[in-house]
Amino acid sequence: MASKEIILFAKRLASNEKKIRDRSVRRLRLWLQKRSKEIDFDEIEILKLWRGLFYCMWMSDKPLIQEELADMLASLLFCFEDVKKWSLFLSSFYNTMCREWIGIDRLRMDKFYMLMKKMMKQSLVGLLTKDWDDSWVKALITVLSDGPIHPTEFKVLDGIRLYITEIFLDELLSLDLSKISCDQVVDLLKPFVTLSAEACNHSILNTIDENIYQRLLEEDIKSKLSNYQDLYSTLEKILFESGSKKEVKPRNRKILYNGSKRFREAKAASIAHDNPSNATEQILEESSSEDIKTENNLNFSKEIIEPTQVNETDDTAGNVSNTKRKKKEEAPTTGAKKKKVKKTEVKMTKRPRKVKTDSNPLIAKAKSLIKFKPKKSPAGTALKLSSGKKKELEKKGNAQKKKSRTPSPSSGKKVRIMLKKNKTQEFHKDEPAINVSPFRTFNMQTRSKAENFF
């Protein structure tokens, strides 16, 4: 029964008339408030419902109407009191956006950006109304990490990842964060740390660095978060641990290490500002502990090559380089006479070529009798000739064609002349020919006869 009602709602939400759309949104809100407690919704049913809501937003025009509709759609999250149903409704929204994102044109893109922003804000407001309960916080983290912030999911496009990284921290800091703990804030930021460790797009890394890591170091945040020093210390450790993994790419590692360095420096500056007497001792202790961490975590392979002992008498040893030999020869020997080395000149002589002879005398005699015959090119293949030879052959061919076309002077042949009215007149030809028309050649005597005839 619920599936039929959802299909009817989806049809009415996607209608062309604005009155029907507004009425169906109001009725849907009341229906969800009543039926959400009784019915266990399936994922397919809620996806059908969000398809209708997507086209409801698609059909809306004018910015004020679009903003009002976005607020109404985002407020549907408060109809669910159960965590599972709430997370299913939110995850189906992000799934529909990822599925339909390619079909959105540039004229309608702004209103769907606004819808995503409203949904993010209302989801965080829902956590605040539940007093930042751990179950609700974990549900939001799973929705974000499995959906729009997943680093390797091919269905999720980079435009959605970029926009959510720009929005998230601003929407979080716009709320009252007095009751939230430091561990919960870190848990909410962990999906972005995994994204910065595994992302392939360079623009995503820059947006995370600017809008999250650098944004947390601003002075406005220190006034909103009472335990910001603990937050800096935990984020420093998490970024360093995620950057020290072998699977991480070098550019991702660079951003993670820079972020951990900034948080360490900000923590040291805040301690120095609060307690200037104990600041230096604490900073030195932390720096020594971090040096030990870098030596343990970064497992670089250092190959130590020990020098090999070689006797001076062995000339065939291959481990001693030429430079070492020169140094040994040039070094002055104390108390020992220099040995005279005879220089021997080596004359290079060419070896005579070995002529191959056939072992069988009959085969050798047969080869001597056989004369060399050049290979003929097979039919349908052209010989490879140089450009000069090609030109000579072309000239000979053209000359032969001209000879075949021009008749002999005393041949006595008859020539046909094309007339205007497709008639022919035959004339006798005795004198040498002159080329006058493209049709045929005829002599000077026949020219006057042809003119009189025309």
TrEMBL record:
Polar residues compositional bias, start-end: 308-322
PANTHER family assigned to the protein according to its UniProt record, in alphabetical order: NNP-1 PROTEIN NOVEL NUCLEAR PROTEIN 1 NOP52, RIBOSOMAL RNA PROCESSING 1B
Listed GO CC annotations: nucleus; preribosome, small subunit precursor
Keyword Membrane part of the UniProt annotation: no
Basic and acidic residues compositional bias, start-end: 423-432
Basic residues composition bias: residue spans: 413-422
Keywords from the named record: Nucleus, rRNA processing
Family: Belongs to the RRP1 family.
Top-level taxon in the UniProt lineage: Eukaryota
Positions of region (Disordered): 306-432
Main location: nucleus
Protein's cellular compartments: Nucleus
GO biological process: rRNA processing
Protein name: Uncharacterized protein
